[in-house]
Amino acid sequence: MYVPNTRNTPMFNGQGELQGSIFLGTGIDLQGAVALSDNIGLMGSYSLLSETNNDPVDQSQTFKRKNNFFEAGLGYYQATRSRRIELYAGYGQGKGTTTGQYGFLGLGQQEVIVTGKYNRFFIQPSIGTNNRGFNMIFTPRVSFVNFNEFQSGVITETPDEGIHLFLEPSLTARFRMAENLNGMFQLGLNVAMPNDAFFDHVPLQASFGIQLHLGGSLRTRVY
């Protein structure tokens, strides 16, 4: 139901830099970011998941397990000779379809197909190295997830559980492939705090991607 997106970690060096990335993992993630000044960055992301699964009620039928999510964030960044840091905050909205037992729908404890709509606020700090060819980035993202509607068939309910806190740390490896092209790998955890979320979520993610970097060299900035 809740599929956290791959962390968008621009880690800019200076004004005018522009990045576009695509990741494959738990679905597809498209990311973009621009350095508005030497310390201010803007980013946006879109995630898509679509796969065919068996219907939990009638195994001879199938349904589409889906997730769509988009977000935007504004943040501060700083680069030195040896490291880069950034702090972004933002907002996103999404919708997911999966199966589960949701008693408040009035369907008992049976497994049903459910679609949920949610919004999310996030705070995302990152710290990373600033090398020419290979860099590591640690991102302990904090997300505040609120599901505001669930639908199963003709039944629609608004839950009253409120906002759920998720700790979503990740480690990203970024390596230079060409003058303006990076390869990337990211491993992330998604932990509900406390662990009482009434909706399903993906606990572990791994994704591979490529990143196009324009408006500045991938070389380490001179200070």
CATH class: Mainly Beta
Shape: elongated
Spatial strand sequence of the major β-sheet: 1-2-3-4-5-6-7-9-10-12
By CATH, the topology is: Lipocalin
State the total count of DSSP E strands.
Answer: 12
Tally the helices: 0
Q: State the separation between the terminal residues, measured CA to CA.
A: 46 Å
- Assigned CATH architecture: Beta Barrel
Computed CA radius of gyration, to the nearest angstrom: 19 Å
Mean pLDDT: 88
Range of helix content: under 10%
Describe this structure in words.
This protein has a 10-stranded antiparallel β-barrel. The protein contains no helices and 12 strands. With about 220 residues, it is mainly β. The relative contact order is 0.21. It is elongated and about 60 Å long. β7 (about 135-150) and β8 form a beta hairpin.
Which tags fit this structure?
223 residues; Lipocalin; mainly beta
Structure summarized in a few sentences:
This protein is mainly β and 223 residues long. The protein has strands at 18-25, 27-35, 40-54, 62-79, 83-100, 112-129, 134-152, 155-157, 164-178, 181-189, 191-193, 204-214.
List the helices and strands and how they pair.
Elements: E1 18-25, E2 27-35, E3 40-54, E4 62-79, E5 83-100, E6 112-129, E7 134-152, E8 155-157, E9 164-178, E10 181-189, E11 191-193, E12 204-214
